[in-house]
Specification:
seven-stranded mixed beta sheet, about 200 residues
């Protein structure tokens, strides 16, 4: 089986590369809106599965596409990618001094129609930040392509994240422990044969 990564995220690419997996990247524009009645993990799973469907007709029988979507939830509010720097600052202001949940939904869809959808959750604790720290991060680290307006691997992750409950890699955008398990079942992740 051949793995296709349907993501423009440099973090997801790096994580798969670090796992020693060979993959091809294919990109497509997909609407990332979701039904309002969905709650937390359901949103991430819905979006991952929705993205995978955009590739269904083009997959060869020996291909598996991996799609993922990461969301940040503060209470019951979903904080997706900010539209601009002002929204990024507003999101980070809401997150600072509190704990929030990060969900990454993943879909693996094979060219034969077999589909697996799952998600992982990580609780992230942020210390209180000054307005100057938030402004510095938004100005220097380009958080507009990140759910919740931050990347745990960036400067803000080093200075603001005080505790993680769950997978750090899930916060980066891919729960690699779960992905590896599912790819093993498909015969894609095999030690000694993946690189």
């Amino acid at each position: 089986m051949r793995l296709v990564l349907a993501s423009n995220s440099p973090r997801r690419r790096q994580l798969l590369t670090d796992l020693g997996l060979r993959y091809e990247v294919r990109l497509r524009e997909v609407d990332e809106s979701f039904p309002a009645h969905l709650h937390r993990a359901e949103v991430a799973e819905y979006l991952a599965a929705h993205k995978a469907e955009a590739y269904r007709a083009d997959l060869a029988p020996d291909e598996v596409v991996l799609t993922a979507d990461t969301i940040v939830c503060l209470d019951d509010d979903v904080l997706n990618k900010p539209a601009d720097e002002a929204e990024a600052r507003a999101m980070l202001t809401r997150l600072q001094g509190r704990a929030h949940d990060v969900y990454t939904g993943v879909c693996l869809l094979s060219g034969t129609g077999q589909r697996t959808v799952f998600s992982d959750q990580t609780r992230v604790h942020f210390r209180s930040l000054t307005p100057a720290e938030i402004a510095f991060y938004v100005r220097t680290c380009q958080p507009l392509d990140k759910a919740g307006a931050y990347g745990a691997q960036d400067w803000i992750g080093m200075v603001a994240v005080t505790k993680l409950e769950g997978s750090y890699f899930n916060v980066m955008g891919l729960p690699v422990h779960r992905v590896w398990e599912e790819l093993e079942k498909l015969g894609i992740a095999t030690l000694g044969q993946s690189s």
